[in-house]
Write a structure and sequence with these properties.
Number of helices: 3
Helix content: over 70%
Order of helices and strands: HHH
Mean pLDDT: 96
Radius of gyration: 15 Å
Shape: elongated
Distance between the termini: 19 Å
Structural class: mainly alpha
Amino acid sequence: MKRFDQLRDLVMSLEGDFEKFYDKENQAAGTRVRKGMQELKNLAQEIRVEVQDIKNKA
């Protein structure tokens, strides 16, 4: 569940920047959203590899 907590924390940390970008059209917040989404993509890939490795060992 540690990985799930990391994933959830990352998504929740982006909430403020999403609001600033979409509601207030803050361009700097958009840059932070894009950076956060890249981090989310990388974390998701790490989790996928980890799950596959565990599954293959079973």
